Amino acid sequence: MARIFSLGDPDKTPKSEKVILEALGRLSDEWMVLHSVAWQSPRGGRQGDGESDFVILHPSHGAIVLEAKGGGVELTDGCWYTNNREGRHKIKDPFQQATDSKHALLAYFREALPWFPAKARICHGVVFPDINVNSRFEAAGPLPIVVDAAGIRDIERSLLTISTYWKNSSKLTPKDVDEIKSKLAPSTAIRPILSTWARRVSDELIHLTHEQIGTLDGLARNRRAAILGGAGTGKTLLAVEKAKRLAENGFQVLLVCYNELLGKHLEAEFSDCGLVKVSRFHSLVMEMARRAKIAIPKELDERWWSEEAPLILLDAAKACDFSPDAVLVDEAQDFEWDWIESLLSIMRDPTHGVCYVFADPLQDLYRRPWEPPSSWTQYEITKNCRNSLPIAKRVASVVGLAEPSVGAPGPEPVFSSTDFRTVRFSTVQRWAQELIEKEGFEPSEITVLVDKPSTATELRLLSAGSTPFCRHGEQGVMVETIKRFKGLEAEVILVVYPTAGIDKVRENIRESAYVALSRARSVLYVFAPAADRADLGFGSSEK
Fold first, then answer.
1. Which has the least CB within 10 A, 148, 309, 378, 445?
2. How far apart are CA 45 and CA 362, in angstroms?
3. In the record, which residues are listed under signal peptide (predicted)?
């Protein structure tokens, strides 16, 4: 994370500059950012001054001056204007402002810092965080020194492009950087609090989600489809949207999932829609059997669920006259294919009725592999619209998938090498407390995921400061097992693996981590012994 020093009043900082600050905060700690800088120096026997929105320093890339212009910006007949809620206003030429600031700063450095090289160069650029520039300002200044809304997303590449354009070969030692900072800025470092960053991540993910929902438009003519996608690609969102569209057209819809917590979430989503029935498969079998007065054994083993449950469902649904027009199956990778066949058979039209299944083969924690019939349309979705890009990259590395290149920028996930034999859960408690008290998150935005029910029980006896750890549906920071939380998500996820590498080498840790890490939208912390760093997607050499 970049070292940021701000001299401006936070309450008066324009929204556009806050956006730029958030982007610059994602740079590595080699970068130093000085915001809202002003200086004065005697030049030519008189008092001279200068100012800049941003001065950015890097040992290998020297100094870069950035002038920021927010809102809508236009260039007409050689004059610059900005458009905002208060109307259209004439403004100064941002390219000229950046140039003037650069020359003033260079003169200041040569007077205030005698060691500053006489031939050293300072780069300058212009930032338009709210618009995409394309080629419309090319007459006013070279495009390589322009950072627009698209360039903000990969701010480091934009800064390197500016440095390359100006052929800046000036080098600064870490000591040089610190001395420049001591001249221009006080010693208080700031960065955007994580909750503010998370809100911006969520806004961008919403945009990506709307794009993903367009998938259903292309499948509208298909009555049988298998939608396959990795964690975070929006399969549950697509299932919900498909159910809503079918209901709007008068279909009686059965939406079935596997996990209890996801079932409760989906039930709440359709609580006021009488045309959509939501149920877990297991609950559906028991409900239909009860309504049909079919006796169920007291002890139900895996064989009964695999072989007997589908037959019970067929008989019970017929006795109850339960026959939906459409069946949608979320978490289909957790289903036996015989379960899906039984759901098809209870439909009003088993041959032509609408049936969509949504699955991620990599989340097959229960080892129930199946292939959809060749007559079904298969559609693969790849765009991650749940996780920020840094989290999506970690998730991909866990199971060896190609690293995504497109997504919402966000803070880097954190791996905490923790010896649970000595500190137990105190590190987890401390981080959770800091996220609430210092980073601005509500307890309901944070979920702790663990690998075993016994670990969840132990953690629920503790608290994060004054905030208790709790079960799903209670007030506090929720603690759940990875399996029970599968299919759900939270703004902040803390993954705890206390027994990894201690009790024994646990099988399928990568499959478990793939599910756990992908539950986080914006912020991710992983607590585990150092020996499990690589298996959990953080690489053996990282600190």
1. 378
2. 71
3. none
Q: Are residues 494 and 470 in the same domain?
A: yes
Q: Provide the domain count of the chain.
A: 3
Judge if 339 and 396 occupy the same domain.
Answer: no
Domain end residue (candidates: 320, 355, 382): 382
Specify the pTM.
0.58
Q: Is residue 378 domain-shared with residue 238, that is, in the same domain? A: yes
pLDDT the model gives residue 280? 95
CATH value at residue 407: 3.40.50.300
Question: Do 34 and 96 fall within a single domain?
Answer: yes
Question: Can you point out the beta strands (E) in 423-466?
Answer: 446-450, 463-464
pLDDT for position 506: 53
Q: Is 446 left (phi over 0), alpha (psi -120 to 50) or beta?
A: beta
- Containing 478, the helix (H) or strand (E) segment is strand 477-481
Longest dimension (CA), the chain: 100
* Same domain (yes/no): 373, 401: no
Examine the domain organization and report whether 496 and 517 are in the same domain: yes
CB 4 within 8 A of CB 190: yes
Of 463, 478, 460, nearest to 265 (Cα)?
A: 478
Look at residues 382, 399, 422 and tell me which one is the last residue of a structural domain: 382
pLDDT along the chain (543 residues), means of 10: 75 84 88 83 48 88 90 84 78 90 84 70 90 77 90 92 86 81 58 65 67 75 89 88 91 94 91 93 96 92 92 96 96 92 95 92 67 88 86 88 78 84 82 91 95 92 95 94 91 85 56 91 90 80 42
In a domain, 543, yes or no: no
87 Cβ neighbours under 8 A, 6+ residues apart: none
- Distance separating alpha carbons of residues 347 and 333, to the nearest angstrom: 21
Range of the structural domain that residue 324 is part of? 222-382
CA distance linking residue 498 with residue 232, whole number of Å: 25
